[in-house]
Automatic annotation (TrEMBL):
One matching Pfam family: PQQ_2
Keyword annotations from UniProtKB, A to Z: Kinase, Serine/threonine-protein kinase, Transferase
MF terms (GO), sorted A to Z: protein serine/threonine kinase activity
Domain Pyrrolo-quinoline quinone repeat: 83-193, 226-302, 304-366
Signal peptide segment: none
Record-linked InterPro entries: PQQ_rpt_dom, Quinoprotein_ADH-like_sf, WD40/YVTN_repeat-like_dom_sf
Protein name in UniProt: Putative serine/threonine protein kinase
Amino acid sequence: MRLIHFLSCALASVLLLGLIGLPGEIITSAGGAAQPWRPAGRGTPPIDVVGRVSAASTVVGDVAVAGRWELTGDSLSGERIGDGATVWTYRNAWGDDLVGHPALDDRRLAAVWRDGRVTSIDVTDGRVVWQTDIPPGPGHEANRAYDEEWGAAWEITVARHGSVPVLVILHEGRLDVLDGRTGAIRWSYPPASTGTCQAPGSARGVGEVVLVFGNCANPGPQPEVALSAADGRPLWRFDGGELWHARDLGDGRLASVDEKGRLNVRAAGDGKIVWQTTLPRRDDSPAGEEMGVAAGLLTVRTRTEVSAYRIADGGLAWRRAMKDAWSDTVLTDGTHTYVAEDAGTLLKLDARTGHLVDRHRFESDISPSWMRDGLAGISVLHGDDVVVG
């Protein structure tokens, strides 16, 4: 009799779970996103504000994804930029703090939780593509206690192997690199525990390499190394912080600015400089990640000018004098280029010539943030970010 009662309860539980899903992890769909998004004003010469998103959002296609803290656990929510409607909500009550949710490609992102769970989500409908768990690193306990030796911060970036995105996660004294298609761990660094000095202090995925920065307590050169994003092979070593904000240029090249204000373009395979040029006012030289890259041009904004260089040979394509602005970030898709003319004014330029297309004045200070599929995200101080076309 007890066996029959137990089996009945088990069957009822299975049926209930089948109806409501596993507790603690729920995806609520509220309607599909409009793909592709073609807002009025997109592609026209004037700068038009076509949508608004929260400052902490990751934008993929027509959907802005933002994390939210809840008593039952952190959640992610996708909202259409066009009308602000919620497309889906992902709740993970069994999970820990959400530490990041970078875009993997033009359709998927990866949500990373502090307990090691990683979930790839199709942003168009909130569908889970894959899930995996990364094992704790050597500094796990110290990390949980917010010990300053290891730090509580996770660093999450995206590199690539050919056309395949790879998710680069630095956590608790170890680096795990996941295949963006399946979630499988491709490689880890260091591959085995070899002492405190081998633990990476910081890491960034930049194109087809992963740059690892040292964490040695002892003074002197740090074990900084560029690793292959495909398999973790050491490619070349470097010293100093020049590559901290390196930018992927495609075609196996990286761009960075050194302490002397020189723009250096180097081969990603061996680290050798292919060409370099000196930028004006080296004390205000931009970081590599602030540069615009598209259509064979590297566009750089300094305090006094914006210049476009040919990635192939470093030749100057065009140059335009600029006013002083607090943001050096350049956004470009190869057709149009967006830069801040001053603290509150956005310029839209012809990416091939530098000629002015339009100028738009905002009520607060602005900073260009991202550009995809012909649309640009502009961070606005004291308000929601805006999307312009």
